[in-house]
Structure formats: C-alpha cells, structure tokens
User: Fold this.
Amino acid sequence: MPAGDIEKPLDGFQRMSALFGGSEYILSMWVKADGNGMDITLLNEMGANIGELLYTNGKVTLSSAVLPPALNAEYIIADFQFCFYKKEALAKNLENSGFTFSAIDAPQKKRQIFKDGSLIIEINYSRNYIEFNNHLRRYKYILQGEF
Assistant:
C-alpha cells in the first residue's frame, strides 16, 4: 500500500513483546513512518542498532545480523499497515484481494480481517498499546508506545 495511506505520522520509541512458536521475544525499536515510507530501527537492550527495516517506494528491505534470514519482511510491513494505515484504504485493498475488513472505533478501537468468514487477524487498541493477533499464522504481539 502507498505510504501516504498512513493515519498519522509516527516518530518514536516502541517496545514489542511477541509470542511465536511457543517462544516469547522482546524487542525495542525506533519507528519513523510518514507519507514517504517507514524506517524501523531495531535495538538491543543497551540501545544499540541490531537491524533496520525500510519501506520506501513500495520496496521492502531488511538488514540484520540478528534476525533469521527466513523472516519475511513483507509480513512485518503488512502487519504495520494493518495497525496504522487508514481504515478506508485497508478496506479497499483487502476487499480487492478477497478478504473482509471490519473496523470499530468506539467504545474501543478494533480491527478484524476475515477470509471466507474465518477471523484471521484481530487488532485491539488501547491508549498506549496495540495487541495484534494473527490466528492464521499463530502468532501475537503487543506494541507499546505513543501512537
């Protein structure tokens, strides 16, 4: 999706705790995302750069000596878009690909993505965190930060 579909620019620290394959991972990152693209700098516990994920002009690049080479960076970008892009743009894009998209803004913000009537992704928002659940690929994570 075009970078211009982001709801509002982000430029700040986020912390991610994830559950995947029975293991828990904790990662810190600096996220800068706006209408020009996104730059996610991955940080270790001491604040040192351990990798970078870039999305500009529709192209995704991931460079990291720590993350596994098999990690699909496009999935990370898609998850980010599901969380932070405009609901109208997401609905159009997803529905053109055969998915159903649902967005609720009140009383608590929530987004859901369905395929053939089955819930595959659910995103719940709170003041300073986002809980992302991918039921299809069986992983979930929580993002903490200022959104």
